[in-house]
Amino acid sequence: MAYRKDSLWKTVDWWTIALYMVLIVCGWFSVCGASYDYGDPDFLNFTTRAGKQLMWIGCSLTVGFVLLMLEERLYDTYAYLIYGILLLLLFGTIFNPHEIKGSRSWIVLGPVSLQPAEFAKFATALALAKYMGEYTFSIERGRNMLVCLAIILIPMVLIVCQKETGSALVYLSFFLVLYREGMTGSILFAGVCAIIYFIVGIRFSNELMADGLTSLGEFAVLGLIILFSALLVKAYCKNSDRAVVYILSFGLGSMLLGWLFSLYVIPFDVVYLQGGVCAALCIYLVYLFLHERIRNYLYILVFTIGSVGFLFSADYVFNEVLEPHQQIRIKVLLGMEDDPTGAGYNVNQSKIAIGSGGFLGKGFLNGTQTKLKYVPEQDTDFIFCTVGEEKGFVGSTFVILLFASLIWRLIYLAERQSTRFGRVYGYSVLSIFFFHLFVNVGMVLGLTPVIGIPLPFFSYGGSSLWGFTILLFVFLRIDAARERQ
């Protein structure tokens, strides 16, 4: 047993642990700065935010040590069991009577509140790695792909039911893992298209074209659907130049003529004409498949039908699924509304705080915006503004470089895994970290919607810190076992 432990300490990746330690130390000082009140500098008092965070850090280090001590086979053997337990917790939390900030995603145990959604990330990563690590797995098989999607989407749906849409969106990062393991790029292309449809459709949904009847958003998206379908035919179907010309000339030409007719002859909603054009496009794709027997035409047909369905369901999702405060945040981000004292207040104050830090920052505990509590949630979701104000451009760049180094190290560790289980889990970890970093820093700077997800190792709270620690140290244990094989 002593030999096993000695081998573990020699093979564990100390560079990653060092980055982890630096990040949680920097995070603790940021929590100190964000939660500090004038005349109350006792950061070791466990009744303060800083004191509680220090306790969470101590618990996280203990959890990390325990995870390293466990046999790596346990994570593979009990992956589905862990996943099932977390799904039950997520389901049970939906009916939780305790509601915090409009969300039912918390389990309250006396003075401690835990968020199962944070731990479900590591459970989902384990289950996905377990399934994809099977010898007979092939992502090109439709059944295997559907199971992977189910593993990702089931916890995502349960978290949405808890009114925690921001945490649910994190699970989209698992699609990067699928892409690394051989998922066709067309699926990622479809995902990018969906984002474009949503942004353009929502942003210009209430703006009318010159004829006064046609929605600019729907007109533009339907035009993009025709254009993207033609590009897919060109990219994935052989000898399709003539078909591409037919699609573009008939599709876009009909749109243009229809709009001119509506503008100068008889006004009508051109979207109805575009719907007919899309229907004709679908019939033409079926004809091409029957004539040439190329299966890709069917996939493009599914893309076209799905795109049209997504366009007309986006309005329902935006108005019925998203919470009112989330709708306002998206409208402010897209420039549909200007609400500097409401939904846009957080971002505006965060920008002021970061801008006031200048190049070198105001110094530890010297930030005025954060000390006067102008920035809501400044020690949780918006904690990066504290870094910007106190440490300035230099400190902010240093923090981002630390995260970039961690992500680069995780890529290196994932690529050197000898098993698909280890590689898939490693890419799941780095994808989650990258998503959190990109979206959190982006929303603080006003570049992404405010969806309320923490900055790893920085944001105050035990659930997020423990969740990220478990994610990372399970992977370090798996990697250490690879070194000893």
Describe what you observe in this structure.
With 485 residues, this protein is mainly α. It is built from 20 helices and 2 strands. It has a two-stranded antiparallel ribbon with strand order 1-2. A hairpin with a 2-residue loop joins strand 1 (107-109) and strand 2. Helix 2 runs antiparallel to helix 3, helix 9 (174-180) crosses helix 19 (420-444) and helix 19 (420-444) runs antiparallel to helix 20. The chain starts with a helix and ends with a helix. The model has no long low-confidence stretch (mean pLDDT 85).
Q: Termini distance?
A: 16 Å
The major beta sheet can be summarized as: 2 strands, antiparallel
Order of helices and strands: HHHHHEEHHHHHHHHHHHHHHH
Structural class: mainly alpha
